[in-house]
Amino acid sequence: MAKNSATFVCQSCGAVYNRWKGKCEACGGWNTVVEETGGAHPMAGPVATRPSRAKGRIFPLEGLTGEIKEAPRTAAGMPELDRVTGGGFVKGSVILIGGDPGIGKSTLLMQASAALAKGGHRVAYISGEEAVAQVRLRAERLGLADAPVELAAETNVEDIIATLSQGRPPALAVIDSIQTMWTETVESAPGTVTQVRGSAQALIRFAKTSGTAVILVGHVTKDGQIAGPRVVEHMVDAVVSFEGDQGHHFRILRAVKNRFGPTDEIGVFEMSDKGLREVSNPSALFLAGRDLAAPGTAVFAGMEGTRPLLVEIQALVAPSPLGTPRRAVVGWDSNRLAMVVAVLEAHAGLRLGMHDIYLNVAGGLRITEPAADLAAAAALVSSLSGSPLSSDAVYFGEIGLSGSIRPVAQAPARLKEAAKLGFTRAVSPSSRDKADQPGLSVGSIGHITDMVANIAAGSPRRKAVAGRREG
Fold first, then answer.
1. Can you say how many angstroms the Cα of residue 414 is from the centroid of all Cα atoms in its chain?
2. Residue 21 annotated as binding?
3. Residue 79 marked ligand-binding
4. Alpha carbons 179 and 200: distance in angstroms, whole number
5. pLDDT of res. 467
6. Comparing C-alpha atoms, which of 260, 229, 326 is closest to residue 16?
7. Do 45 and 185 contact (CB within 8 A), yes or no?
8. N or C: which end of the chain has fewer CB within 10 A?
């Protein structure tokens, strides 16, 4: 009998060592190397049953031209979820979804499973973290107890595959979560790198052979990354993140990787006492309740994939009693804020070095595109001067290091969304692809100093000085 050899595997990146190390040399993580007993490789079982052959099988090679078939999809019945997946679940695909604890992953998947099951499809929900009674309690709270969803609490991958193989193949199988699964071909504890990789590989093989769409729920680390080896993200067909702040009731479903659809689409949901409610017009929801007369607020016309989105950017600039002023950012890149502040100081003559700066994207949304530079700069100048911006104006544009305002993509879609919500003015860089919108006047600016001069002209201090001069 062969003796099992002990190996040391990094739980963050999957690097293997022959002895313990305090710091992983591959990813730089501390205290992530854990001893695992070397057992059979996850592929040892299936490979051992194959007949050996002296030479490989010759397969045909085809060219780029030929018949193109669209991948068959099964619509989930939830438009926001179908938007992110590219029109529905592709048969035989595997989706890895991650998110913070308590963000609503299980609620979303329960609603999607119930919608598919009510449409006549076979759906299986396998829970490795909760008992069957707990899942039923959640379904009853959501009003989905009457949905014909097949439910089980199991963690053994071989038993799960054998059970799902009985009868007609399910249209959808939800595994909650992959970190709790274990396979008999690997001798290590559940949740380790080897077990997660082996369990995911077995479930992916089942999905490809049966045509069942499989959704794997993954835990996330403190950095927001899906826990486990990164190789699992390469093995699956799509990686989806469920984002949001538990202090807000908005939730964003975003595709990070998708082999059968776009990766720049988002789905917007609102958490309620009856579960997640789809938001068809997120711009009106993000702008609800904003203070129109307060300085330091600007409306940004952004894009999330093909969907235009209007959000409010709030800024507060206050004198700092500290030697090193604070820079606090929520929902935007802090490095981007530092660049905008440097440009305002160098080219617009503003003195922000002795001020605390706080920037917030209202609603818990996170903005990543550089088109938000102009809106953030407008909010900063408005807060510093005490001059409120026009409540019927939107801002978008990228700021260069020279102070120039550079054009951004999809300007017509941004202007169309602003006109639909009743805005009458748009401040943006000059561009050739702008489309005229009825009732919307577009003010093009070429340098950051033009915007600062326009905002400073409406400052209460300047108006008071002008009034004393006239008197």
1. 21
2. no
3. no
4. 9
5. 44
6. 229
7. yes
8. N
105 is in an annotated binding site: yes
3, pLDDT greater than 80? no
The burial of 192, by beta-carbon neighbours within 10 Å (0-12 exposed, 13-18 middle, 19 or more buried), is given as: buried
CA-based Rg of the chain, rounded to a whole angstrom? 27
Single-letter residue type at 128: G
- 101 known ligand binder: yes
Q: What is the pLDDT of residues 355-406, one digit of tens each?
A: 999 999 988 788 989 999 999 999 999 999 999 999 999 999 999 999 999 9
95 annotated to a ligand binding site: no
| SS3 category, 327 | strand
208 annotated as a binding-site residue: no
With tokens 């790198």, the residue in question is: 193
Neighbouring residues of 54: CB distance < 8 A, sequence distance ≥ 6 = none
Tokens of 194: 């080897």
pTM of the model: 0.77
Question: Is 118 labelled as part of a ligand binding site?
Answer: no
More confident residue, 46 or 128: 128
pLDDT tens, 343-352? 999 999 998 9
Q: What is the pLDDT of residues 118-130, one digit of tens each?
A: 999 999 999 999 9
Coil, helix or strand at residue 150: strand
